[in-house]
């Protein structure tokens, strides 16, 4: 009986800690997952984004945006278009980067870097969104950003985005290419680099990783910290 209990404890411990994997005889630290969420907007619903409610085991019952996992070789834009098409049957226009969050909940063995893209519903292609994955999502609705459910009812990455005071309807300035390149580099450093004090060097300057990860993307850009 003692051996069984010890075995169960070891299983639970391995699922709730940053365990190590082994490749070619060398230990490899467990890495965070990389996901992508999409802030879908529509001029017919001013100030609103598309919101659903999860039915899957992870985050069940919490509100979510369309999104999922980035596939190998896929750009952020391609992933955003694919996910909203698969989940809601719509196409986006004016697609752009929104922000990025680092979501950790070790008691649930959950650690994800989530990239948020933002795009407008392309009415020339599609009408209203439809729920194409009813086994995963209760349905889609337009919800005003300033009348969102409380954070405890949001899927963790979306709650983290709200904590940044991110404003999807704030007017954006130019410089998208440099901005995207900088934040893409930042995410890669954070996931594959050597810790929270790593920096990404690009566009002629070095940028602290944690500063950009934990601030709203809009605020960072408008303060002129990126070239």
From TrEMBL:
<dbReference type="GO" id="GO:0008413">
    <property type="term" value="F:8-oxo-7,8-dihydroguanosine triphosphate pyrophosphatase activity"/>
</dbReference>
<dbReference type="InterPro" id="IPR020476">
    <property type="entry name" value="Nudix_hydrolase"/>
</dbReference>
<dbReference type="InterPro" id="IPR000086">
    <property type="entry name" value="NUDIX_hydrolase_dom"/>
</dbReference>
<keyword id="KW-0378">Hydrolase</keyword>
<keyword id="KW-0464">Manganese</keyword>
<dbReference type="GO" id="GO:0005829">
    <property type="term" value="C:cytosol"/>
</dbReference>
<dbReference type="GO" id="GO:0006950">
    <property type="term" value="P:response to stress"/>
</dbReference>
<comment type="function">
    <text>May catalyze the hydrolysis of nucleoside triphosphates including dGTP, dTTP, dCTP, their oxidized forms like 8-oxo-dGTP and the prodrug thiopurine derivatives 6-thio-dGTP and 6-thio-GTP. Could also catalyze the hydrolysis of some nucleoside diphosphate derivatives. Hydrolyzes oxidized nucleosides triphosphates like 8-oxo-dGTP in vitro, but the specificity and efficiency towards these substrates are low. Therefore, the potential in vivo sanitizing role of this enzyme, that would consist in removing oxidatively damaged forms of nucleosides to prevent their incorporation into DNA, is unclear.</text>
</comment>
<dbReference type="InterPro" id="IPR015797">
    <property type="entry name" value="NUDIX_hydrolase-like_dom_sf"/>
</dbReference>
<keyword id="KW-0460">Magnesium</keyword>
<dbReference type="GO" id="GO:0046872">
    <property type="term" value="F:metal ion binding"/>
</dbReference>
<comment type="similarity">
    <text>Belongs to the Nudix hydrolase family.</text>
</comment>
<protein>
    <recommendedName>
        <fullName>Nucleotide triphosphate diphosphatase NUDT15</fullName>
        <ecNumber>3.6.1.9</ecNumber>
    </recommendedName>
</protein>
<dbReference type="GO" id="GO:0035539">
    <property type="term" value="F:8-oxo-7,8-dihydrodeoxyguanosine triphosphate pyrophosphatase activity"/>
</dbReference>
<dbReference type="InterPro" id="IPR020084">
    <property type="entry name" value="NUDIX_hydrolase_CS"/>
</dbReference>
<feature type="domain" description="Nudix hydrolase">
    <location>
        <begin position="33"/>
        <end position="150"/>
    </location>
</feature>
<keyword id="KW-0479">Metal-binding</keyword>
<dbReference type="GO" id="GO:0006203">
    <property type="term" value="P:dGTP catabolic process"/>
</dbReference>
<comment type="subunit">
    <text>Homodimer. Interacts with PCNA; interaction is disrupted in response to UV irradiation.</text>
</comment>
<dbReference type="Pfam" id="PF00293">
    <property type="entry name" value="NUDIX"/>
</dbReference>
């Amino acid at each position: 009986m003692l051996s069984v209990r010890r075995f169960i404890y070891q299983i639970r411990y391995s699922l709730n800690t940053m365990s190590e994997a082994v490749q070619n005889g060398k230990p490899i630290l467990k890495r965070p997952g990389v996901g992508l969420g999409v802030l879908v907007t529509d001029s017919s619903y001013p100030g609103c984004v598309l919101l659903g409610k999860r039915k899957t085991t992870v985050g069940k019952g919490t509100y979510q945006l369309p999104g999922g996992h980035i596939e190998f070789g896929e750009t952020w834009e391609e992933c955003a278009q694919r996910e909203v098409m698969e989940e809601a049957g719509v196409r986006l226009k004016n697609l752009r980067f929104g922000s990025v969050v680092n979501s950790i909940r070790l008691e649930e063995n959950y650690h994800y870097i989530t990239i948020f893209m933002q795009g407008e519903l392309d009415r020339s292609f599609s009408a209203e969104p439809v729920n194409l994955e009813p086994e995963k999502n209760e349905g889609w609705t337009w919800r005003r950003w300033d009348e969102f459910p409380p954070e405890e009812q949001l899927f963790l990455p979306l709650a983290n985005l709200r904590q940044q005071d991110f404003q999807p309807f704030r007017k954006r300035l130019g410089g998208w290419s440099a901005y995207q390149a900088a934040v893409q580099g930042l995410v890669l450093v954070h996931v594959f680099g050597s810790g929270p004090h790593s920096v990404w060097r690009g566009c002629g300057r070095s940028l602290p990783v944690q500063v950009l990860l934990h601030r709203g993307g809009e605020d960072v850009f408008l303060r002129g910290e990126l070239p």
